[in-house]
């Protein structure tokens, strides 16, 4: 993104993200830390993470104050990975709604390990999770299979070609595979209903991201730009 002549601001909103591999310009761990919450309130990691995000929601002014004067920046928010925060709980959605009130154009980039393509029951769970997250958060979204280089290693063992997983093609073929397994066959009706819901909404598709392949990085950037309505500035590169 910086190579496109954009000024980037990185905001870490994961209170458990101690080893980020980058220097955050704004860090929620300056407000609250997961380990402190676990020690003080005797909570497990999942409960403590929910507590932290609820604390951020209540203290949103802490974040909004630090975002002042950043209107000319392209902001990346690094969020926690706990899926329940996006599928069942309202705190993350409420935080994002507050950001919308500040006139930020947001796009959710949902990263999923490409290994979840490897087995039918994992993929159907991924589809349901992606759709549920999109409906719960209610923002433009781009779903991404990360670790695209790893995907190439087991591509030959996949039941279908890559396009089946990225474009979410006729899922009845997936149902056939699920019915071949004695365990997943027991849940035929549930699987049928999940597939029906995913196909009826027609919202879920995936992009493959391989950090070693610049073309996939550019493709992701362009999709996000389109989703959040990004307006190119003068002298700004549209491709890397």
Automatic annotation (TrEMBL):
The keyword Calcium does not apply. Gene3D superfamilies: P-loop containing nucleotide triphosphate hydrolases. Pfam families: ATP_bind_1 (PF03029). One of its GO terms (molecular function) is GTP binding. Keywords: GTP-binding, Hydrolase, Nucleotide-binding. SUPFAM superfamilies: P-loop containing nucleoside triphosphate hydrolases. One of its GO terms (cellular component) is cytoplasm. Heterodimers with GPN1 or GPN3. Binds to RNA polymerase II (RNAPII). Small GTPase required for proper localization of RNA polymerase II and III (RNAPII and RNAPIII). May act at an RNAP assembly step prior to nuclear import. Belongs to the GPN-loop GTPase family. This is GPN-loop GTPase 2. It comes from Cuerna arida.
């Amino acid at each position: 993104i910086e190579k496109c002549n954009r000024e980037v601001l990185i905001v870490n909103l994961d209170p458990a993200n101690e080893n980020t591999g980058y220097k955050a310009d704004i860090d929620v761990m300056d407000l609250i830390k997961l380990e402190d919450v676990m020690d003080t309130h005797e909570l497990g990691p999942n409960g403590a993470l929910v507590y932290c995000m609820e604390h951020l929601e209540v203290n949103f002014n802490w974040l909004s104050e630090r975002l002042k004067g950043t209107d000319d920046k392209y902001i990346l928010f690094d969020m926690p990975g706990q899926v329940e925060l996006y599928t069942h709980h309202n705190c993350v959605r409420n935080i994002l709604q507050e950001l919308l009130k500040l006139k930020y154009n947001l796009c959710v980039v949902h990263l999923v390990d490409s290994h979840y393509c490897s087995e039918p029951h994992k993929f159907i769970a991924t589809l349901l999770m992606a759709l549920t997250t999109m409906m719960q958060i209610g923002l433009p979204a781009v779903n991404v299979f990360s670790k695209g280089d790893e995907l190439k290693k087991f591509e030959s063992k996949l039941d279908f070609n890559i396009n089946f997983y990225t474009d979410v093609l006729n899922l009845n073929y997936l149902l056939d595979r699920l019915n071949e397994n004695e365990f997943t066959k027991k849940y035929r009706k549930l699987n049928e209903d999940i597939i029906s819901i995913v196909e009826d909404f027609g919202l879920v598709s995936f992009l493959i991201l391989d950090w070693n392949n610049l073309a996939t990085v550019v493709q992701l950037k362009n999709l996000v730009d389109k989703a959040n309505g990004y307006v190119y500035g003068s002298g700004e590169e549209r491709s890397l």
